[in-house]
Amino acid sequence: MKKNGLIEIQEMVERAVRLFSFSRSRREQGYALFREGPAGPVERLVEGRWVPTSRMLLGRWLQRDELDAGDLVLHVQRYLLPDLDEPSLEWRSDPLGRLRRTQPFRWLMPPLKGGAMSRLRGGVADRCRSAYAENLADVSESTLSDLREQAVAGYEHQRERSAETEQRANFFLAAAGLTNSLVLANAGLLLGASKLGTPWRILAAIALGVGSFCAIAAGMRAMQAMMIAFYRTPPNAVDRIVDRRLYEGVALDRVYVAALLVAQGRAGAIGDWKVKRLRGARRWFVSSIFGVVFLTGFVLMEAL
């Protein structure tokens, strides 16, 4: 007989806490999940896989809160996580997957918070939907109606949030490209008969390099926020609608609210990622503007 989702998650968490102690970072927007065995290294959950974390890199995550079994159940349901007790990701088993979870790659393409996966593994979303439906088993019909309205509003808010972020990122992508062209066009100030004199040529070359790098980084962050699409779990997908033919009345509302909660949590994790990429684009874009300002200033100083 197939286990229901909540029991399956609880058993998985209970099995994991017997082997590891779990903690979560206190950093704002962090929610990085860590585990540590009695004699093993500290491991961090990155896109659903556990990877060892060096003590030096762990310094930025030292402020951590221990999680009990109840906290872990909620964390698993919120971020749609796979098993917490699976072996750590090794280079020999999946070198490409391990490379994608190293620190340099995490800087270039930061993972979703909470250890969430960019592409879900099969059955994880179904398990969490089932668990939410069981959590709603004792909810009255009137209360369930209110929860449904709140879940719909929350899901729509997260969708609008992602769409607005992508629109703003589109502006930053175009502005970063224009700024980068402007900075590179000024390279003529460093070459030919009209090149700047010393020391302004050296300073202008530094400003040119910094401005170009910042403009490229701003464009990359904006492109990530606008173009990278993660696998979503919409509440009204075809398979969800087909499955609901088996339910009616309160039971139908219950499975629909469960689907909304899973979709809202997924959209929230994606939205947080996109907002963070947009903030990165804004910071890098401001830095590139400073590069243009400094470069212009050096030209004026030489002219004067």
Biggest sheet descriptor: 5 strands, antiparallel
For the terminal residues, how far apart are their CA atoms?
A: 85 Å
- Mean pLDDT across all amino acids: 83
Task: Please indicate the count of domains.
Answer: 2
Helix/strand structural class: alpha+beta
Poorly predicted runs are none
**Total number of β-strand segments?**
5
Q: What is the rounded Rg?
A: 25 Å
Strand content: 5-15%
* CA-based shape: globular
Helix content: 55-70%
**Helical region count?**
10
H-E order: HEEEEHEHHHHHHHH
Strand order of the largest sheet: 4-3-2-1-5
Question: What does this protein structure show overall?
Answer:
- There is one protein chain.
- The protein is of the alpha+beta class and 304 residues long.
- It has two domains: 1-135, no CATH class; 139-304.
- 61% of the residues lie in helices and 7% in strands.
- Strand 2 and strand 3 form a beta hairpin.
- Helix 7 packs antiparallel against helix 8.
- The protein starts with a helix and ends with a helix.
